[in-house]
């Protein structure tokens, strides 16, 4: 699936901030889930909302606060999409 180039760059910057031993698995999992979410929307491109949704759907509890910090540092506006949703606030 095609990606919005700016969102793909933001994801790359965020992945670079993740501890090295988690980068590959995080990138693979988030990419797969973001593309699934874009497909559900029948979107032509993976957009910010898909990446944000992917992170909030698959991040294990111990990494939740780090994910929030990295999303903010990387310029992802997760609050715009209603995250964290009730039941997903793992902090």
Secondary structure elements and pairings:
Blueprint: E1 2-3, H1 5-17, H2 20-40, E2 45-46, H3 48-58, H4 64-73
Parallel strand pairs: 1-2
Helix pairs in contact: 1-2, 2-3
Molecular structure report:
This protein has helices at 5-17, 20-40, 48-58, 64-73, and strands at 2-3, 45-46. It is built from 4 helices and 2 strands, in the order βααβαα. By secondary structure, the protein is mainly alpha-helical.
Total strand count, please? Answer: 2
Runs in which pLDDT lies below 50 for 5 or more consecutive residues are none
Structural class: mainly alpha
What series of H and E elements makes up the topology? EHHEHH
Average the pLDDT over all residues and give the rounded result. Answer: 92
Let me know the largest β-sheet. 2 strands, parallel
Spatial separation of the terminal alpha carbons: 32 Å
How many domains make up the coordinates?
1
For the biggest β-sheet, the strand order reads: 1-2
Give the overall shape, derived from the CA principal axes: globular
Number of helices: 4
Share of helix, binned: 55-70%
């Amino acid at each position: 699936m095609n990606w919005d180039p700016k969102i793909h760059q933001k994801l790359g910057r965020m992945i670079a901030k993740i501890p090295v031993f988690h980068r590959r698995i995080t990138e693979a999992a988030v990419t797969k889930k973001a593309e699934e979410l874009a497909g559900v929307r029948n979107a032509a491109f993976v957009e910010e909302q898909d990446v944000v949704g992917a992170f909030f759907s698959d991040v294990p509890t111990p990494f939740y606060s780090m994910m929030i910090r990295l999303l903010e540092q990387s310029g992802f506006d997760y609050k715009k999409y209603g995250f964290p949703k009730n039941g997903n606030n793992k902090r």
